Amino acid sequence: MNCKDNLYVGNSSTFVTSSMKGYLEGYGTPRWIIFVIDLAICTASLLAAYLVRFNFSIPRIEIETFPIAFSVVLVVRSISFMLGKTHFGVIRYTGSSDTQRIFRTITFGSLLFFILNYARFYLLDGKFVLPISIVIIDYLATIFLMISFRMSVKMIFSEFKNITKVKSKVIIFGAGEAGVLTKRTLDHDNSLNYDVIAFVDDNKKLRGKKVEGVTIHGGEKLNELLQKVKVDELIISVQKLPKARKTEIVETCLPYNIKIFHVPPVRSWINGELSHNQIKQVKIVDLLGREPIRLDTLNIETQIKRKVVLITGAAGSIGSEIARQVCDYFPEKIYLLDQAESPLYEIDIELAEKIGKGICEPVIADVSNYNRMRKVFETFKPQVVYHAAAYKHVPIMEENPSEAVLTNIRGSKIAIDLSNEFGVEKFVMISTDKAVNPTNVMGASKRVAEMYAQAVNANSKTNYITTRFGNVLGSNGSVIPLFQKQIESGGPVTITHPEITRYFMTIPEACQLVLEAGALGMGGEIFIFDMGQPIKIMDLAKKMIKLSGLSVGKDIQIQVTGLRPGEKLYEELLANEENTIPTHHPQILKAKLKAYSVEELQPRMDKLIAEPSNTDNYELVKLIKELVPEYKSQNSVYSRLDHKES
Question: Does 294 score more than 80 pLDDT?
């Protein structure tokens, strides 16, 4: 197909060598050569049909009429090839569409033979151009030889191309249909160079059997296989593998520095076919996430359906995911409020593509601006509010307490008061585990917002509900994206303390529980989520490095930088004086804690939020500590305030 292919000159051996070289280097064989080869195949098929039909002893009369038959076949096949464009495809990339084109083209030509036969028989001399049996045999032979030729060239090219490459040894976990399709995808893609050496499957009935020449081993033999053979990659193809089993497989592979991949769900395959580009490397999020949460969707839908919903902080990790999930429950309108223009634009575009334009509307606003927020409530009259707007980074808020007061306390108070004034049905506030026995400005500021929401709830028709959970995987600025960037840049991976632990939850999981808790709450509750077991950050860092196929201490170093201002070694979900009450949902508990009155909080809060930007940082933090007696600073310049108090 390249014009250079038409410039070969010299003797035949030079021509063939040059053509093959150009072909293998990617220029492709000229179309006219493929056309000639196809006609040669047709000639061979016709001769084979005559020999088979007459038991390798062709009668003289048939030999005499053969030139006419031969001419007719070549003319008909030439026309059909030109119309069907069978010679246009690049042979080394022959696929199912090419074989279908050949089938249709040959069928068309053979049907013409039948038409010509009966036209001559009935309209001319009562004879056939070709015997019917010859037409049938020729039809089958031509299809077989043309397809076989293309597949043979494809296989030869693939072997020639990969002959000098070192193949990556691969184990596929799962010998079911998805596993077999995974192997075929790897085998048939010329851009890859994989050698599938084994299947591993937990199904005892499959053990010892072979799939496409590859032996199936039991799941308990995985570690033994990895010890015997240097494996480069393992691909998990099982579609509904429990999280615990997936984690177990990964833990088995990590000591061997193997890259681990997984096949996506069948529903995401392109036109029902798996592409190697869809086989993604296993990430730490895939292992830390838990089994899917069972939600009371009817209860959530009752709260949201045909309601006007306002989401503050809608451009953030949590706010945007709440917006995505709220869309599934048929709201009348969703107002996406944030002061970050670009990410707000992005989530608005995303949701418009998901549910159509007109349902969502972006609102640029600062939650600490009373007049602007009042206009929002007055104009849009929301019935359900999800308050996710907050500053959340501990060390930054420790250095900028006035901003924590403005957004986390004043902004929350404004949203709470306006919800009460304009008759919002439910107000769901997103809080944090750092509000429990706070050791930093950020956590303490969120605790003040919790206290005020509960206090206002006591004398309001609005139901105020607070949800409290720990770190979410993959959120903006969280430790996992940071570690990933550090690994990709060659390290070091930095952690603040070798013993530091944190609770983790995926963003979708956290937001599902927020919706569930919001629907469950009757007002005044602080719901806490089951965060599972705490995870040691050092272990998390090591696992992420190994998942990247690298060695800790050899390829990537881990560097301990020291605790940051206000940072705890261990996070808590409940204060010491608190206890919990179970709810109908096993992953949602209700905290019992001391209630405050508005009269008790209002004067001190008014003083705190009046002019935070013009107030000394120490004075601000002192006022927060007066509101939250359990707030004791750690590793912070504000620790001296605790000593003065004591």
Answer: no
Classify residue 175: in a domain, yes or no.
yes
pLDDT at 379 over 90: yes
In angstroms, the CA 14 to CA 4 distance is 15
Q: Residue 644 falls within a domain, yes or no?
A: no
Give residue 358's domain range.
297-639
Mean pLDDT to the nearest integer, 608-623: 87
Pair (610, 463) in one structural domain: yes
Last residue within a domain, chosen from 95, 129, 162: 162
Q: Exposure pattern of 426-449 as b/e (b: 16+ CB <10 Å)? A: bbbbbbbbbbbbbbbbbbbbbbbb
Contact 73, 48 (CB under 8 A): no
How far, in Å, CA of 172 to CA of 201, rounded? 9
User: Given this model, what pLDDT does residue 11 score?
Assistant: 40
| Rounded Cα–Cα distance for residues 345 and 459 (Å) | 37
- Give the count of domains, the chain: 3
Q: Which residues pair with 473 in a beta bridge?
A: 506
Per-position DSSP letters for 266-328, written without gaps between them: GGGSBTTB--GGG-EE--HHHHHS-SPPP--HHHHHHHHTT-EEEEETTTSHHHHHHHHHHGG
Q: C-alpha dihedral over 78, 81, 82, 84, to 10 degrees?
A: 150
Which residue in the block uniquely carries the two structure tokens 């004067």? 603
- Contact (CB, 8 A) for 519 and 302: yes
Assess whether 50 and 174 both reside in one domain: no
Peptide linkage before 492 cis (omega within 30 of 0): yes
pLDDT value of residue 452 = 95
Verify that 598 and 572 share a domain, yes or no: yes
On whether residue 292 sits in a domain, the answer given is no
Which of 310, 316, 322, 347 is closest to 516 using CA atoms? 322
> pTM of the predicted model, to two decimals?
0.67
Q: Are residues 155 and 174 located together in one domain of the fold?
A: no
Longest CA span, the chain:
121
Q: Quick: pLDDT tens for 15-32.
A: 334 444 444 444 456 778
Give the integer Cα–Cα distance in Å for 597 and 124.
109
- Domain termination residue (choose one: 138, 162, 186): 162
Same domain for 147 and 173, yes or no, is no
- What is residue 23's predicted lDDT score, i.e. its pLDDT? 43
Per-residue pLDDT averaged across 595-619, rounded? 86
Highest mean pLDDT among 64-68, 441-445, 539-543: 441-445
CA atoms of 176 and 240, how far apart (whole Å): 12
Same domain, 177 and 126: no
Cβ neighbours for 621, distance < 8 A, ≥ 6 positions apart: 401, 441, 633, 638, 641
| 158, 177: one domain | no
pLDDT above 70 as % of the chain: 85
Residues 147 and 7 in one domain: yes
Asked, for residue 313, whether it belongs to a domain, the answer is yes
